[in-house]
Design a protein that fits this description.
Strand order of the largest sheet: 1-2-5-3-4
CATH superfamily of the largest domain: OmpA-like domain
Order of helices and strands: HHEEHHEHEHEH
Helix content: 55-70%
Strand content: 5-15%
Radius of gyration: 31 Å
Distance between the termini: 116 Å
CATH class of the largest domain: Alpha Beta
Oligomer: single chain
């Protein structure tokens, strides 16, 4: 009996420890899958940031090329004016009125130089602010699927595209609970930048729509835009003077309406971070003499 008992004990112990090892293995395997998923999300964010950085660098290079051309033109004009002034002075055929006119021309060129330098500084500052804003938005929103929300910079303007399925119930302008969560995160970033002005645009696909007070896609897109603006103002405290709402209907698609995927991409709400145009208009004002 004793040998049989010992054999039974040994078999039971082996089965028990084998079971425990299997559970530990499964736990470690789950942890590994979670780690891989997290790494994939971080790698995706890194690729997006690199793409946006490359786009900003391309735009900056184009602007610097324009500024360089203007600078060369100014240098050429300066040299010609200096040479002409010297020749006229040497010949003693220049009148005081002509000398004053040439002096004013030189002063204007100097003012243009100052304008170019100021413009360079403004563009560099705007590029930096846009990149910081995009990074803050991505950090606040987290690893959300690209088909639901997309943040990008195009020609110096920041765009936030949010799919309609994330914000609204189908065929309605009533926001979902998930919409309040997402818009709350966006509002937190925008609220920390009080000088920023933005526009909320509603977009639809090209499928004809009519329901209740909504006559067509114009009505639906406009109602959705004003709903988002109203929520940002009343629930999250954003300054209404810094916001605007617009309905774009079906006429500014980002994809073809010939496929279901394209229609889904076109049904979106877009938040456009507007450039500070007053600063650039101020640069264009003539210098006061």
């Amino acid at each position: 009996m004793k040998p049989r008992f010992l054999l039974f004990t040994a078999i039971a112990s082996t089965v028990f420890f084998s079971c425990v090892s299997s559970k530990k293995y499964q736990s470690l395997e789950n942890q590994l899958k979670e780690a891989n998923t997290s790494i994939a999300g971080v790698q995706s964010d890194l690729r997006n940031c690199r793409d946006e950085k490359a786009e900003l660098e391309r735009q900056r290079a184009a602007n610097e090329a324009k500024i360089s051309a203007l600078t060369e033109q100014n240098t050429f004009l300066k040299e010609n004016n200096n040479q002409a002034l010297k020749q006229l002075q040497d010949l003693s055929v220049i009148s005081s009125q002509q000398a004053e006119s040439i002096k004013k021309s030189m002063d204007n060129i100097g003012a243009k130089d100052s304008y170019i330098q100021n413009l360079q500084q403004q563009m560099a500052r705007k590029d930096s602010l846009n990149m910081a804003l995009v990074m803050n938005l991505k950090g606040a929103i987290g690893n959300m699927a690209d088909e639901d929300i997309n943040i990008k910079v195009d020609k110096g303007v920041v765009f936030i595209d949010i799919s309609d399925k994330l914000l609204f119930k189908s065929g309605s302008y009533d926001v979902t609970d998930r919409a309040k969560e997402v818009l709350g995160k966006v509002a937190l970033v925008l609220k920390n930048q009080p000088d920023i002005e933005f526009m909320v645009e509603g977009h639809t696909d090209n499928v004809p729509f009519s329901k209740g007070v909504l006559v067509d896609n114009w009505d639906l897109s406009t109602k959705r835009a004003t709903t988002v603006v109203r929520l940002l103002q009343k629930q999250y405290g954003l300054d209404p003077a810094k916001m605007a709402a617009a309905g774009r209907s079906e006429y500014h698609p980002v994809s073809s309406n010939d496929t279901n995927e394209g229609k889904s991409a076109n049904r979106r709400t877009r938040i456009v971070i507007l450039p500070q145009l007053d600063q650039f208009f101020k640069l264009l004002e003539p210098a006061k003499s």
